[in-house]
Amino acid sequence: MNTGMLHKLGIAVMVLGMCGTAKGSLSSSIAAILKEKKQSKAIVGIQILDGTSGRVVYEMNSHRPMIPASNMKLVTTAAAQYYLGGKFACTTKIGLLGDGLVVIGGGDPLLGDAKIDEKNERKPGWIFEDILAVLREKNIVSLSDLYIDTMYFDDQRAHPGWPRDQLNRWYAAEVCGLNYNNNCIDLIVKNNGGKITFVIDPPTQYVTLVNQVKATTSGSSEVGAYRNSEPNRLIVRGKCRKETGFPVAIERPGAFFGFLLYERLKAGGITIRGNLSEKYIRDEKGIRILREYQTPLSDILDRCNKDSLGMAAECLVKILSAEHTRGKINGEWSHGLELMKRYLVKVGAKPEEFHLDDGSGLSRNNRLSANTLTRVLMDRYRSQDWPSFKNSLAVGGVDGTVSKYFGEGAYKGKVYGKTGYIEGVRAFSGFCETTKGTFVFSILTEAGNGYTRDAINSICKAIIDEVE
Description:
468 residues
């Protein structure tokens, strides 16, 4: 029997069997939703649990491994919280070795993150200003060298399972032991009376732009920045009517941070006589630490789950690895993912129901069943770190990736979870608050249509309306 026939058979079985998998009203509502939203050709996996007892309230294809898209981040953040503990923080250290300046990365994905800086009332570039201020306090006006230690992670910065033609996009940014500004620049393209100009933020000469943009007086602006064989040399092409802007992922994030620091120190009157270099230096004797900058795990979970920041999730995978490696260095995807697999087995997931390839869900090689995801969510719901994990999730009608959904009074603030989307895949897993208590759900879909997101949202509303 071919795969297409299996899919069709699966749909038939789940439609015929729904009444036996839930109490009547919810089962009937979900069946009606799937029919109304024309999901007959979609592959759908659903599981809904009573949060108090763990009892299955409804399920459909719940043990079938499916592409989870960004629902993968739920596994990553849950495993990170489980292994690292709620009080964990990423630490970046600034020090002196002789008269050389040392920056030791700790895998922090949120250095220079605009949302976190705004939350903490910090101005853009604050870390470079603070380092400059520290040096001035010490009356240091000259440095021999600038050393960047990124060895908390290994050297594999881009995941092999990511689409190669999308590595310039913000959601496929490289990950490094030292990161900055989500490892992106913001590129603004302007048409000034027929002359094309560029603005880069943060301002830097780290990247080179080749202008192939055409000025136009009609239509919309369509501009992209594309990589070539030379690192951080971007070909910018398309057409610009007035002004447009977008983030662009850079290459070699550690060097990016170092170059920005070098530029700021030089502009601030600090002479660097030698070179900017990346090297393993954290264990050198005689390093005097001047500053430590910390980002709590809770902030990283927020950006992963509420805002779906992929590079933060990938950093967590490598942080797990580094923290469980002698010397706390060389955090790698394969080791971090192995730890995540052990966590899934620990919470009761079946090995045949999952396959992990990355931490963010950008890879199409990931597989999770709805049952696996509800196991993860139940584990966090029952853990002492539940308040922090709950706060990391997007809240319907309020914030994050579901701020524009569930705005009606009956649902606003009562649905919280993690969305997922890559081509052909839509997912949503999380929690619904009802008059009968909290319910845990996971809804995974493949091969859907333009109504699939509406169907998913309607099922969440049905949980609140119909569950008994």
